[in-house]
Amino acid sequence: MAVYVLGQPEKYVLAGLYYGKTYRRQILTENSGQVQYVYTELPEHKRLTYYEEEGIEREKILGVHQYLTGNNKIFSSKKTEDKLEELKAALQFTDIEYRDSEIRLIKDGFVIAKILLDEKDRSRLWAICYYSCAKLLRMEVYTDRVFYVNYYKTADSENGLYAKLVRRTFYDRDGSSAYDQIFEDEKEWYLFPDGRRYTRPQLNIEFIRRLNLSEQDSVILDASVPTELMQAIFTFGKGAIITAIAHAGCYFVKKEGSCESFCEEYPYNWLQYVEMIDRMIVSTEAQKTQLIKELEKYHCNIPDIRVIPVEGAFTYTVLNESYAGNLALSWSFSGKTDGFQIYDETGKEIYETWNRHQHYFLIKGYGKASGFVVRAYIDTVKGKEIIAESKPVYIQNQSYEKPLVSLVIPAYNAEDYIVRTMDNVLAQSLSDLEVVVVDDGSVDSTPDILEWYAGKYSNVVIIQQENSGASAARNAGIKSANGSYMEFMDSDDMLHPDMITSLYNAIEANHCDVAISSSYQITNTGYIPITQYSMEENVAVPIDEFFDKHFVKGHGYSFLCNKLYKASLVKTHLFPMLLAEDDAWNLYILSYADKVCYLNGHLYEWDRTIRKNTLSDKIIRRSKEELFKLYKEAIMFYMKNGNPGRRVALKKLAKTHLLLLEKYNAYDEYGKLWRQIEDTF
């Protein structure tokens, strides 16, 4: 028995993943057998992370094109170094550039080949592009071998010249050509070696035939399945048990000039197939009522219709006083949403956002006795549908006793963003939190703002010092901190309201020295997941295993603010007075830990949009020689001062770090430093 979940075309994929998660989980618990997620096109490589975040493993994704080649893998396993050596031997090049996501081979100033690296494991590649005089000629896409090759020609458009895809050749596992996909204007077709010529609908029919569906198999039509694939299922796969899902964004609506169908955005008509559907899933009782009404209107068979609501609930809301007479509203929402709305106690909407990650809003113009409600919504063809609502929230007196956790924040001339930072940390769901802010000699209004918070909140401690740098400020905060655990935060970033509670519960339950969370990097293009590790969550892991799997082999991030540390560990291992203190201190402190645990909650938010010319920006703009000096100081610090019992592991980390820096910066001093470390330690 097999279960096939037929999914969306690429442009609908994110909506389908978010809204379909609840349905998939509940339905699949009722069906035994191997599960495969079927797509007419393979998901873009860069979007595979979305599938994994929604519980869909790469190994379970099946593309129509992929299945017809007999190559059932979609994840890359081709080693970068092996292919790079092949290219070096085959191509005449004059230079190599190593970048974060690609390696470029250059000849006479032009890129002639580009190796595209797997974001999760840069030791493996997923594609290679070949160029001639800056024009893209072909692109090879890999699994454990060549999966398909795209061929391009230069074409003209209103926006200028571009690389136009004209042919795609798919390969069988033995390396022979399986078939070609031909693109001409708006048309496409498929040519097989035996002379067969298929259109896209015919290719889908061939795919369904090869599945050989029987009454023991189940087919789940997940939201916006393309018309031609649905037709193939109902024509050649009708022996299977068929379930059709309509997530909360789909309603029966009337399209002008055509019969009734689901949302006009979707390119198919469900009603003509309803006699062959065994079960339908909707998300609201209103949907079910409307669906039954439409089916009865046309004298259609009414299948078993189940209501499975979209999941989502507010788990935490808090309202605090903020600087300058404003109010700070924060919330934590569990589930999938398109955005949030905020209403005052009279029912007036005062704010709406499409940012589903948002958890903080500064309210102006309301008194301290005001109350508010936060609502989560999804966008549907009939407008916004509210899927969850918080309880009314008012300012409450907060109790603060002996601190369990101390949060240390260095601040320097931070008047433009320190209010958001303070509101953010005071909204943490852990009540016994000490907030230690070290003002590093600010000459703007930062000291005045901090003094207001210290006067209003008893758990806020302000330390004033002459400008001495971030490391000195953190050390001053460490010495003053009273909590059993310690967390660090930069003055322009944000924390999820449940971050410290979540890490505290994890570190206590697993008896660890350090608890780690994945993070988001906030850019002008959105929220980018970082510091993610492919390890079991909320389980104690020996530090040597963590180093080996996720730093030596996985090239982990030197990031200190996404962790909760035992205070006893930190107080005996202070920060060095170095500019690249993250790189130096992170591995240094971890070398003295015995066990760590991990949560993939994206609880820390590294905001790259709120200000320009950060310290990181300044470091990146330095010369190769200056950068080398900074990294040398950092690496030599943890080699000399790290745990002597983990010297072998630290050497491996230094080697990985230095050889990567040598490639990315094209500067051989890094290699020389590694040889020096190898001889010295």
Molecular structure report:
GO terms for molecular function: glycosyltransferase activity. This is Putative glycosyltransferase EpsJ. Its EC number is 2.4.-.-. Keywords: Coiled coil, Glycosyltransferase, Transferase. The chain is of the alpha+beta class. The protein has five domains: 176 residues, Glycogen Phosphorylase B (Rossmann fold, 3-Layer(aba) Sandwich); 94 residues, no CATH class; 78 residues, Immunoglobulin-like (Sandwich); 217 residues, Spore Coat Polysaccharide Biosynthesis Protein SpsA, Chain A; 58 residues, no CATH class. 29% of the residues lie in helices and 33% in strands. It contains 18 helices and 37 strands. The strands form six sheets. Strands 4, 5, 6, 7, 8, 9, 10, 11, 12, 13 and 14 form an eleven-stranded antiparallel β-sheet that branches. α6 links the parallel β15 and β16. The relative contact order is 0.06.
What is shown here, in short?
This protein has 18 helices and 37 strands. It is of the alpha+beta class and 681 residues long.
Number of helices: 18
How many domains, in number, for the residues?
5
Which range best describes the helical content: under 10%, 10-25%, 25-40%, 40-55%, 55-70% or over 70%? Answer: 25-40%
CATH superfamily of the largest domain: Spore Coat Polysaccharide Biosynthesis Protein SpsA, Chain A
Low-confidence stretches: 249-268
Strand content: 25-35%
- Stated plainly, the CATH topology of the largest domain is called Spore Coat Polysaccharide Biosynthesis Protein SpsA, Chain A
Q: What integer value in Å does the Rg equal?
A: 28 Å
Termini separation:
58 Å
Mean pLDDT level: 86
Class by alpha and beta content: alpha+beta
CATH class of the largest domain: Alpha Beta
Biggest beta sheet summary? 11 strands, antiparallel
CATH architecture label of the largest domain: Alpha-Beta Complex
Number of E-state strands: 37
Label the overall shape.
globular
